[in-house]
């Protein structure tokens, strides 16, 4: 489970970081080089996500969604300086509970 968690975190950093760099380029007028780096990070995200041992594409990607929601809250807080409120954190907790339910071992 430690390996799966590390892959989730690495993929999340690539996806959120890549999206953030693309946002900076297209929405904030930053250098096109940031857009290029963002697109490379997004391609890496697609590759990293395939490293998971879970057999179901849909279930893994749905779980990524829950993890990425929480990671995005932290990204916004630490990088973008936007403090999440109580409802953001409550939503994040609910997402993580959902991820745990989805990835619960089955027979």
UniProtKB/TrEMBL annotation:
Query: Which compartments is it annotated to reside in?
Result: Cell membrane; Endomembrane system
Tell me, in one coarse class, where this protein mainly resides: membrane
**Entry's transmembrane regions:** 30-48, 60-77, 89-105
Keywords attached to this entry: Cell membrane, Membrane, Transmembrane, Transmembrane helix
Bilayer disposition of the protein: Multi-pass membrane protein
Recorded hits in PANTHER family, A to Z, give: UPF0060 MEMBRANE PROTEIN YNFA
What family classification does the UniProt entry report for this protein?
Belongs to the UPF0060 family.
HAMAP family linked? UPF0060
Q: What is this protein called?
A: YnfA family protein
């Amino acid at each position: 489970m430690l390996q799966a968690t590390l892959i989730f975190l690495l993929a999340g950093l690539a996806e959120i970081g890549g999206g953030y760099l693309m946002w900076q380029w297209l929405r904030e007028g930053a250098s096109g080089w940031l857009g290029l780096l963002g697109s490379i990070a997004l391609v890496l995200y697609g590759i990293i996500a395939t490293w998971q041992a879970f057999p179901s594409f849909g279930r893994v990607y749905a779980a990524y969604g829950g993890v990425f929601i929480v990671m995005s809250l932290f990204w916004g807080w630490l990088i973008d300086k936007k403090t999440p409120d109580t409802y953001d954190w409550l939503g994040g907790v609910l997402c993580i509970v959902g991820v745990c339910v989805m990835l619960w071992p089955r027979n």
